[in-house]
Design a protein that fits this description.
The chain is mainly beta. It has 8 helices and 117 strands. Strand 101 and strand 102 form a beta hairpin. It is extended and about 160 Å long.
Length: 1404
């Protein structure tokens, strides 16, 4: 409420004198009104004191409100209530006189007004300048987080408290965004401004975030807090007594207790005990488990244990027997171990006539026969160095307390030690705390040393205070454990930025304590949280900094406890911060800083945008020094550079000034042929004038030389270059220069048609012609009477006589062209080869020599079994086959009068160790005999599981190739290949029904095959409907079109979408929900339900302001390689779309789409040439594009064609092997292209025949073709059949067969075998079999242990009783051997059904 007072210093706030109003009558109120009227006349002359009077009046109003509240609390009974009504009536009268007529919601209800309703008409002017305004809606006190441990919270209540203003605000409660309603579990309390949520009987499931929402006058606010219940680890609070005895015929009672409710199992001698009326009773009361054995006998003697998950790895129990009886000790190992032994005292126990030791699996048993007093001792089981003990006692004994217990007083979390001494050294006795049996645990240590018994209670808590007792046989002693009043604080050490917690627990409930930091009082705020929960008080310091290190004190009930906070972490600082840099454009800017510590990550920013390394941006780290280099900076790079290390920044400015011009693209050396046109290009950083130079002489434009300038690009064009144009060319811009060398090669001219002899008659003209390959290498110049013939680039074939004739003038001359001397462009070099490998000498000569030869020493070499000589143009090769040590020599090549030589050096062959690994020399696979030590096996998995195939070879590092249905496999997102020594593994992830196929592995011509069978989740053939691609959370921006898509395992008739019944679009197995022009109202959770499975995703709509932080970059790959595109946008969790050549991409085996926060990644596996094109990324308004370039593979012949010789009428086969798969090839015969139709037509020598089989049987459809290697395809009602678990195709010579397993009624169809030109078909009829046979068949498929018990049941329904006198047994045979199964029944005249797929031979 805000009160505005007119400028009158003497006006007194009526609210400030409410206490007087309660004591006065209505007459005094009228006089007060008159007095105020008089005072009001004096206000106009004293405006300068208005502010002072306002403050005084406001203070008086607050004091009056406090007094009124105290008065109301003191009134009691009916008389007090009537007095309140009287005072309230008078107060309302005063309010009507002095205040505005707009009541608060609380006052409205007091006068019979509805909240927000319109009150009586206000006076024309507010009396005495008062004006009432609405109280703003706010939380005076917000909710606080509550943290409980499971042991403290179970059965107790958690209370969330807050205060809201005004008190009339309506509040509601929520848990994890779900509304809460008042119930026995949740109690809501509203008292004035106080609002409380009481959670009764707190459980682990109550953990979550709770929200209080306050509403008033159309406004709404909220505050939140968390309830955290820490789960308690499972352990025994009370264990079974080591030995329990009872009188014969009396009941035997055993009990134990867990720290939390958990199912337990009772066992006797390792066998589970079950309830038995009148004998065994098992009870569970909360966390306590009890076993009662009624009317106990000697047969009940044995090992009794209670087991529950979470106990120790080795479980042991003790035994107690009577004299001359057998004592048995048993224990169970958690895992197999050879390191165990039984001990009696410290001596190892060995088997004898008296002692029997057994081991069955993980169970160990020690039996002591005919127990005598000398057998009484402590027996131990030692496993892996750990001891587990038990005592053997006989009969009933008595003990005497020699030293009684003494009371102990400790402070919380200290250790309490109790000690007593008894007369019987070998009796362990029993310790109890407040009546509860104590057992050894991390907080309870029990020691025995001769007759001394010691109990140590570690880390004592306040609830441990009570009586401690010890009993051994009939002797008992007790004492008190007393706890000090206050548990002191402990020093706390936490890492930087983490939360620190000081905790103190007292024995009394105190609502408020005082916390201090040094001498300063601590109050709750963002830094400090104070939690007072009855006896427990906590101070939580959030986000600890080094400045928070200090002494913290708690004061309660006159006592104080102090502890110190230490913050651990790296006290990082900049030894050398960044410095401003001013550089010229085109140069490199370098920023360097030095930290106080090493191995600290530093993040660089440019104008607060994170910098990522690239071609022009590099980062370096050298110990404590961090460097950022920005190459080829431009004027646009002027910015602020910031380096941030663990939140500590250092900033500097980068200023780029206009720099001198430089060449961004430099000249490149060029080799041209005479008469060619040459263009030398370069590019500048800016548009400036340049000068061109040739061999330091300036070049001027001319008819043969052109100088071009296009923007920043500069070009020098030389037309018809000659030998004089070769040399060095320089382009100089004044501040930079670039140079290149131009090489000129002579043109190769041949005589196409030489001069031929001519015979003519007297007086006729004779014309001689010669035709050259180049017409511009011959020039005839006529200069008056002077005639000149110029032959350029003369060649050896031009040698001969040249004749000149003019009228009757004639002359001739000889042209002799000599060959240039032979020179070696690439001479011979020494060759190193391993023994038995090929050694190859290669050289390249300047021209083809007239004669040449190879020499080994002085011996001339020719082509034979040892040496192979190859000539390819100017390249000559000598191959030494299967090189040996005796082949080491100096090899020479002679060409005319030139020679070159090289040595052959032989290295030792490699060796393989016992594991087949190469330990010396080379690592080839020549002459290795690789064996499949462990071939691959058939694998059967369910849909969406992972299928793995493994093969083990005799050697490691051998190339292995995997095939699926004879198609080579390559690694992808769902296909993984790995190698571990000799073991090679192939894994298929998220398999589907379509992945059922034949898998083959090939290693150096050795192969192994296995079947991959994929079963449905609930059916062997199809699998129930489920979502293979689930909905993904989607974040879009307003007005975008939102597409939520998922994919089913198979096409379904209908799915249901949930979210305001949005329309659904279906496309086969894919399901899409399209929301056009999404708005904020579209936010929510969307679910697609197919009846059996459902998938859900959240849709979030954000405002449109997305930027591309790091754009896409183009990627170039070779065919079959993987291309990866990556971009980063300014917002996280935003749905993005990827497109390839305008087509949207979706996740598939060849496409992987990932988003890691703001980073979005596209991975395309097994790239093809037709995939080359534009890659487009879009997320809201953010877009980026790049190019995917796919280079063609270099295809070569790994194995060329070989000649074939056949007899007329036979088939000739030609085979070759390419370096890659999937390459289209064309075949030619004598230059004529061959088509598949050119082969002889394939006919069916034996067509298919109609068949009839029973349901679930196997059908075999057979036919024969005219050619052995003819290819056929199988069809079912026109649909092609692929090889799966159900369908199997057989090719055996001319025979072709289709095997159909597990025939169903739906398999009654027409089947066809197609050989292109000819086709044969048949009809398969599947008949329903009897229910009895069908059930028997299914029963056999499950391969149960008792194979024919159910079979007997079904036969008994219609035939005499039959039993199997000799049942079936498992049979193990080697591959390709026969497996024989036999059984025998009780009757001879019994009809027995045998299923072919089980392959069982039954003898009746």
């Amino acid at each position: 409420m805000e009160i505005f007072i007119a400028p009158d210093k003497r006006v007194k706030d009526v609210g400030s004198s409410r206490e007087d109003v309660y004591e006065s009558s209505e007459a005094s109120l009228e006089s007060t009104k008159g007095r105020v009227e008089a005072e009001k006349q004096k206000i106009t002359d004293k405006d300068n004191k208005m502010l002072t009077e306002q403050k005084q009046t406001q203070q008086q109003a607050e004091a009056s409100a406090v007094t009124q509240q105290k008065t109301r609390k003191t009134l009691k009974g009916d008389q007090e209530r009537s007095t309140i009504k009287s005072i309230q009536s008078k107060t309302d009268t005063v309010k009507d006189l002095f205040l505005s007529q707009t009541p608060s919601p609380g006052e409205g209800r007091g006068r019979g007004l509805r909240p927000g309703g319109k009150g009586p008409t206000p006076p024309e002017e507010p009396f005495a300048g008062f004006k009432l305004k609405a109280v703003p809606l706010k939380f005076i006190k917000k909710l606080q987080d509550i943290m409980l441990k499971e042991a403290e919270s179970i059965g107790s209540a958690a209370v969330f408290e807050c205060e809201v203003s005004p008190s009339t605000a309506i509040t509601t409660w929520m848990k994890d965004d779900c509304n809460l309603r008042e119930s026995p579990k949740h109690k809501f309390t509203s008292d004035g401004k106080d609002r409380k949520l009481n959670i009764i009987d707190v459980q682990l499931s109550d953990t979550g975030e709770y929200t209080c929402i306050a509403k008033n006058a159309g406004k709404e606010i909220s505050c939140k807090a968390k309830l955290i219940v820490e789960e308690l680890p499972l352990k025994w609070i009370k264990e079974l007594e080591e030995e329990t005895s009872a009188m014969k015929g009396q009941p035997l009672y055993m009990t134990c207790e867990l720290n939390k409710e958990k199912d337990a199992i009772w066992k006797k001698n390792g066998e589970v005990l079950k309830k038995q009326a009148g004998k065994i009773q098992i009870n569970v009361i909360g966390m306590q488990h009890a076993l009662t054995i009624q009317n106990s006998t000697e047969a009940d003697t044995g090992l009794i244990s209670c087991e529950v998950s979470g106990q120790e790895d080795v479980k042991t129990s003790t035994n107690h027997v009577k004299p001359k009886a057998n004592a048995t000790f048993k224990c169970e190992l958690f895992k197999e171990s050879p390191n165990w032994k039984w001990l009696k005292g410290e001596e190892e126990v060995t088997p004898s006539d008296k002692i029997e030791i057994k081991k069955e699996g993980k169970e160990l048993t020690l039996t002591i026969k005919n127990c005598q007093p000398e057998d009484v001792a402590q027996y131990c089981m030692e496993v892996e160095g750990r001891l587990y003990t038990a005592n053997l006692t006989l009969g009933e004994r008595e003990a005497e307390i020699l030293k009684p217990l003494a009371s102990v007083e400790v402070v919380e979390k200290q250790d309490a030690v109790f000690e007593t001494e008894i007369s019987e050294h070998d009796v362990p006795g029993e310790w109890k705390l407040k009546g509860e049996v104590l057992t050894r645990s991390p907080t309870c240590e029990i020691h025995m040393e001769r007759g001394v018994r010691k109990l140590t209670l570690k880390n004592c808590q306040l609830d441990h205070a009570g009586e401690v007792s010890y009993q051994a046989l009939n002797a008992m002693t007790s004492a008190m454990l007393n706890m000090d009043f206050v548990v002191p604080l402990k020093d706390v050490s936490v890492p930087e930025k983490k939360q620190a917690k000081f905790e103190c627990t007292i024995t009394k409930d105190v609502s408020k304590v005082m916390w201090y930091r040094g001498d300063d009082v601590i109050t709750p705020d963002q830094k400090y949280d104070i939690i007072d929960d009855g006896k427990k008080h906590m101070l939580i310091i959030n986000c600890c900094e080094f400045d928070d290190e200090d002494a913290y004190t708690i004061a309660v009930l006159g006592k104080m406890s102090t502890a110190r906070l230490t913050v651990d972490g790296i006290r990082l600082r900049f030894i050398s911060p960044l410095k401003d840099q001013t550089v010229k454009e085109g140069t490199t800017a370098r920023f360097e800083l030095e930290l106080s510590h090493e191995n600290i990550p530093v993040t660089w920013y440019k104008n607060d945008v994170k910098i990522h390394p690239s071609r022009t941006v590099l980062t370096h780290v050298d110990g404590k020094k961090h460097v950022l280099e920005m190459k080829e900076v431009t004027l646009d790079d002027t910015c602020q550079i910031k380096a941030e290390a663990k939140g500590i920044p250092s900033m500097a400015n980068l200023t780029v000034i206009e720099g001198d011009a430089y060449f961004t693209v430099k000249l490149q050396d060029y080799t041209a042929v005479e008469k060619d046109e040459v263009a030398l290009d370069c590019e500048l950083s800016k548009d400036v004038e340049v000068m061109w130079y040739h061999n330091e002489a300036e070049i001027k434009p001319s008819k043969m030389v052109a100088i071009k300038a296009e923007g920043k690009r500069r070009t020098l064009v030389i037309k018809k270059v000659a030998n004089k144009d070769k040399g060095q060319y320089v382009c100089d811009c004044g501040t930079d220069k670039t140079m290149a060398t131009l090489h000129i090669e002579a043109r190769h001219i041949k005589v196409v048609r030489p001069v031929y002899g001519v015979e003519v008659f007297d007086g006729e003209t004779a014309r001689f012609e010669v035709e050259l390959s180049e017409d511009d290498d011959v020039e005839i110049v006529e200069d008056g009477a002077k005639h000149t013939l110029v032959l350029y680039n003369c060649k050896v074939p031009q040698t001969g006589e040249l004749v000149f004739t003019a009228a009757n003038a004639k002359c001739s001359a000889n042209l002799k062209v000599k060959e240039p001397p032979v020179s070696f462009i690439t001479p011979l070099a020494d060759v190193h080869a391993y023994e038995k490998d090929e050694a190859k000498f290669e050289l390249e000569i300047s021209r083809e020599p007239k004669s040449f030869r190879w020499l080994k020493g002085s011996q001339e070499l020719t082509n034979d079994d040892k040496f192979e000589i190859q000539v390819e143009g100017k390249r000559h090769t000598l191959i030494v086959k299967s090189a040996r040590y005796e082949d080491e020599a100096k090899y020479m090549f002679e060409a005319e009068d030139k020679r070159t030589s090289g040595k052959l050096i032989i290295k030792g062959d490699y060796e393989l160790n016992q594991r087949g690994q190469c330990v010396s020399g080379r690592q080839h696979y020549v002459n290795l005999s690789v064996l499949l030590s462990l071939p691959i096996k058939d694998v059967t998995v369910k849909e969406r599981e992972t299928a793995e195939f493994s093969v083990e070879l005799s050697h490691d590092k051998i190339p292995v190739v995997w095939y699926k249905n004879d198609v080579r496999l390559h690694p992808s997102k769902v296909v993984h290949m790995s190698e571990d020594g000799k073991v090679f593994t192939l894994a298929f992830k998220e398999v589907s029904i379509d992945d059922t196929s034949m898998i083959k592995v090939e290693a150096m011509s050795k192969t192994s095959e296995a079947m991959l069978t994929v079963l449905g989740q609930y059916h062997a053939d199809e699998g129930d409907l489920y979502f293979t691609v689930k909905l993904q959370n989607y974040t879009a921006v307003e007005k975008d079109e939102v597409v939520l898509s998922c994919e089913l395992s198979k096409a379904a008739d209908e799915v249901r979408w949930y979210k305001d019944e949005r329309p659904m679009q279906a496309d086969g197995k894919r399901r899409m929900l399209v929301i056009k022009k999404a708005a904020r109202s579209s936010i929510g959770s969307y679910t697609c339900d197919c009846g059996i499975d459902k998938t859900t995703a959240d849709l979030n709509i954000e405002e449109r302001d997305i930027k591309v932080v790091r754009p896409l970059y183009s990627v170039e790959v070779t065919e079959t390689e993987t291309a990866k595109f990556e971009t980063e946008i300014s917002e996280e969790d935003l749905h993005a779309t990827w497109k390839l050549k305008g087509e949207q991409l979706h996740p598939s085996p060849d496409v992987e789409i990932k988003d890691e926060g703001a980073r979005h990644i596209l991975v395309i596996f097994n790239c093809k040439m037709d995939m080359a094109g534009s890659i487009d990324f879009s997320a809201a308004n953010a877009k980026s594009s790049a190019q995917l370039r796919v280079k063609a593979r270099v295809i070569a012949l790994a194995r060329p064609l070989a000649d074939a010789s056949v007899t007329a009428g036979e088939t000739a086969t030609f085979e070759c092997e390419l370096s890659y798969e999937g390459i289209a090839v064309e075949w030619f015969l004598g230059g004529t292209k061959l088509e598949p139709s050119d082969r002889p037509a394939v006919e069916f020598s034996k067509p298919l025949q109609d068949q009839t089989v029973e349901e679930e049987a196997t059908a075999t459809l057979e036919c024969e073709v005219s050619r052995e290697k003819a290819e056929v395809r199988w069809f079912k009602d026109g649909t092609e059949i692929r090889k799966t678990k159900k369908y199997e195709m057989i090719v055996d010579g001319h025979k072709r067969a289709l095997i159909i397993h597990d025939c169903t009624l739906d398999d009654s169809r027409t089947y066809a075998c197609d050989a292109k030109q000819f086709k044969t078909s048949c009809f398969l009829n599947v008949e329903r079999e009897s229910s009895r046979e069908r059930l028997l068949y299914r029963y056999q498929e499950r391969r149960l242990t008792e194979s024919f018990k159910v079979f007997n049941y079904f036969l008994a329904s219609s035939a005499p009783h039959i039993e199997f006198s000799k049942p079936l047994h498992d049979v193990e045979v080697k591959e390709k051997e026969s497996a024989r199964f036999e059984c025998e029944v009780s009757r001879e005249d019994v009809k027995v059904s045998v299923r072919p797929r089980i392959n069982i031979s039954i003898k009746v």
